[in-house]
Amino acid sequence: MIELLNVSKEYEGGVKALDGITLSFGEGEVVVLKGMSGSGKSSMLSLIAGLSKPTEGEVIVDTKHISKLADHFATGFRRENIGMIFQKYNLIADLSVKENILLPLVPLNLKGGELEKRLSKELKQFNLLDKKDTQVKKLSGGEQQRCAIARANINNPKIILADEPTANLDEKLSLEFIESLREMKSEKRTIIISTHDPLFFDLDFVDRVIEVRHGKVL
Amino acid sequence: MNRFINFYLLSYSVGSLKREKYKNIFVFLVMSLLVALLASTFFLSNAMKSEYNTLIDTYPDIVLQNQKAGVNSTIASSIADKVLLLDGVQNSEARVYGSYYFNRADRKLNIVGINMFAPSLSPFINILMKKYSLDDGQMLVSRGAKALLSKYYYKEYFNFVKSDGSLKKMQIVGTFQENNKLPQPNTLVMLKSDARKIFDYKEGEARDIAIDVANADEVAFIARKIEQLYPSMKVILKEDLRVKYENIYNLRSGFFLTIFIIAFFTFFIIIYDKLSGLNSEKRREIGVLKAIGWRVGDVLNAKLYEGAILSLSAYLTGIFLAFVYVYLLDAPLLKNIFLNNYNLLKNYTINFSVDYETLALLFFLSVPIYIAATVIPSWKIATLDADEVMR
Ligand SMILES: Nc1ncnc2c1ncn2[C@@H]1O[C@H](COP(=O)(O)OP(=O)(O)O)[C@@H](O)[C@H]1O
Ligand SMILES: [Mg+2]
Questions:
Q1: Which end of chain A is more exposed for a tag (fewer CB within 10 A), N or C?
Q2: pLDDT band of B315, cuts 50, 70, 90
Q3: ipTM, 2 decimals?
Q4: Is A96 helix (H, G, I), strand (E, B) or coil?
């Protein structure tokens, strides 16, 4: 479903973040990318999301050549297929929980009823109902991460990409987050998690753990 | 679903404006004040410009004045008939008029002499003469003059003091409304023969000769001919007067130019501040929006709404303030600056009119520029790779 063919990524200044990677991810699979900081995990997620382009090789999702799409279409692809969760949550601090969660839907200009329906599902699923009008900057770290997951989930994406999602959470909250992932797997989503958090390494619902080192897959 | 306006995007933009409340309120205030200031000045100056143009339009094409030792003196009325014989001269009139100092009130009365049997060159006087018929010892007074004279208990007549100290009693037989074609306040209209007595002119003397020319292109040529015929006299052209008043006006606008420069300087500081780039938080926000599926166009639309809401509301507020200030409050202060030493429009009241040129000019100088300054920096960021921007 997701295929990386001989993918390399070199940044300006000559840093080779990814070096000839060939990998594929099946539909509904949950994969953990593990590796030290700087090994190239984020770069890989960013290529799959169509947020940047590989220097060499190809990224193909469902027969779509993501790495060849112009920005406009890459964004369109992302909007329909991908939900992203970041280490720093990347929420907009001054907006409310509800506003943050709805952000991916804003450009779609959906009907009000449809919007409310999707919103209340996410608020319930991620236990944010009583926080929905609170400004994000007033939330705890765990609540912020739940808000970020709800935002990633609201466009009903086939693929969830999570970049070091528990780096800023304590163990209890991390386990909570892992439970949310399990739930998302049951919704038949393909999930790729980049992390060096050992909590992820032998979970029952994780299908594969792939180690990344110096831009290569071991 | 509404295809044309995305209200979710709009409310995101309103939210963005609210998040920078104080900065945006400041920009709004500065912009609307600048627009109000410039609009008021333009409204007023354009209104006055058109006012004095309408006034000057009623002037004769050429005025001939006699000079003695460099000072204006009376002129022989017969010259009017001689001038009329020149090719191209359509009409001429020996005018008898002037101001009379009413010392008890310390005010001037403006006397205009007419001839019941010959049309005047002033359209306003001709209209009056259709309504009234004057005899010796009778006069018409403007509303302003009527009010002034009544204050001193001259309700039915007025006694002019002649140069030899004797009195000349004039009956008031009617009143008329001053208008913008007759700008002098306190006007009195009487037969030329009576006016001559008051000003101590001899029979056959006039203050000047007014001349209308059939073809506007020939005015200069005819003026030269008259100059040759009467080399000691002064020939004044209507168009020269127009230029003279325009110069006084332009001098005043020069003063305002300074204000405009300050105004635009302030505005461009705001614009420059916006163009100089976004802070890291805003850059990251754009990166995040792109990562969660906003296209460049969506980001730009949001910014467009943001800039348009702020600048349009500031523009409209400024224009509204200018309308209130100029037309409702009659432009206190500003009007005085314009009218100071500017005798032409003495009893000028501002007529309401919509000055579309000014509205358009100020619109294009404020709204699109501000919108562009809001959109361009975001556009630069939005077209970068989102993961670069979010780092
Ligand atoms: N935008 C960028 N510009 C330059 N170098 C980058 C950029 N992004 C990542 N890198 C470099 O590429 C390498 C891999 O980074 P990254 O993919 O973020 O690794 P990880 O997520 O595993 O920590 C690192 O050396 C990092 O410094
Ligand atoms: Mg990383």
A1: C
A2: very high
A3: 0.92
A4: strand
